[in-house]
Amino acid sequence: MRIATWNVNSIRTRKGRVIDYLQSADIDVLAMQEIKCKPEQFPYEEFEEAGYEVIAHGLNQWNGVAFASRLPIEDVVDGFDGMPGFGKPAEDGSLPLEARALGVTIEGVRLWSLYVPNGRELDHPHYHYKLEWLNALRAATAKRREEHPDEPLALMGDFNIAPLDIDIWDPAFFEGKTHTSQPERDAFNAFLTDGLVDVTRELGVEGYTYWDYQQLRFPRNEGMRIDFILGSSEFLELVNSAEIARDERKGDGPSDHVPVMVELDTETSLDDDMPMIF
Questions:
Q1: Strand partners, 157
Q2: Is 183 helix (H, G, I), strand (E, B) or coil?
Q3: CATH number at residue 258
Q4: Of the residues 16, 180, 256, 278, which has the maximum number of CB atoms within 10 A of its CB?
Q5: How far apart are the first and last CA of the chain?
Q6: What is the pTM for the complete model shown?
Q7: Beta bridge partners of 66
Q8: What are phi and psi of 239, to 5 degrees?
Q9: Are 17 and 30 a contacting pair, CB within 8 Å?
Q10: Do 86 and 120 contact (CB within 8 A), yes or no?
Q11: In this predicted model, what pLDDT tens digit does every residue of 174-221 receive, in sequence order?
Q12: Is 199 part of a structural domain of the chain?
């Protein structure tokens, strides 16, 4: 089973590129972030014609997460327990929840598509929201793993954190900025302390996953590694290969992120339809 995650930076703008990647890379399940549309605006028909079912969670033209799968999708959940909100308080004082987390189970594997808040600036309320959001995700993940100890689980998506200096093109450039501050890195590393593994790094895959559109960042390879698949030990045991699809940043109208993919050594319901060869 081939599983990928990709911040597509507007699915309606890049539906053709995304579907081309699904087919050329033989992807079974794709977690998408920053779809930038409501569910009713998602281009379902094109994905269905390509053989994929889509589950989307979006509230407006910002954020938004989704899954496209050619395998059955089960146990769909929008958001996670304790997920904080951000924005203008309601009359009861609660903050609106953003479309940043979508959980599904596919072939017994628990998967999350996550779009972690950006943080904006170190003294901005969005930065504190980011840290609170990550802390709540950690607690919800620990609870799920306690309740389902044998379940393969992966947190996938745009974490908006470069956890190591090798994950950014110039550490000096990021001094005093978000994505590399110690509290953000500590929040990321807390998932590893809890037993999750950065799967692609564990398999020796190197490279950035994001390059800004400005100042020729991609041609100069001035990028960041901020998109990850964090897997439980049960998930890691199934992984036999991984890659960062750098070439998806090339060509016409690319996203500023590229897919991160892992292949699991597991039989799926699609295998039942394959002819037997003796």
A1: 114, 228
A2: helix
A3: 3.60.10.10
A4: 180
A5: 23
A6: 0.96
A7: 32, 56
A8: -80, 130
A9: no
A10: no
A11: 999 999 999 999 999 999 999 999 999 999 999 999 999 999 999 999
A12: yes
The residue segments making up the domain with residue 241 are 2-270
- Asked if residue 276 belongs to a domain, the reply is no
φ, ψ (nearest 5 deg) of residue 78? -90, 120
Could you say which DSSP state residue 197 is in? E
64 part of a folded domain: yes
* Interatomic CA distance for residues 170 and 177, integer angstroms: 12
Q: How far apart are CA 220 and CA 211, in angstroms?
A: 9
**Among all chains, which residue has been given the structure tokens 């990709």?**
6
**Of 56, 79, 67, 66, which is closest to residue 133 (Cα–Cα)?**
79
Residue 41 CB burial class (10 angstroms; 0-12, 13-18, ≥19): middle
Strands 109-115 and 101-106: antiparallel
Question: CB of 161 within 8 A of CB of 185?
Answer: yes
Owner of token pair 């395998």: 71
User: In this predicted model, what pLDDT tens digit does every residue of 24-64 receive, in sequence order?
Assistant: 999 999 999 999 999 999 999 999 999 999 999 999 889 99
Give the CA count within 13 Å in the CB-facing half-sphere of 96: 8
195 occurs within a structural domain: yes
User: For the chain, how many structural domains are there in total?
Assistant: 1
The rounded distance, in Å, linking the Cα atoms of 195 and 167 is 21
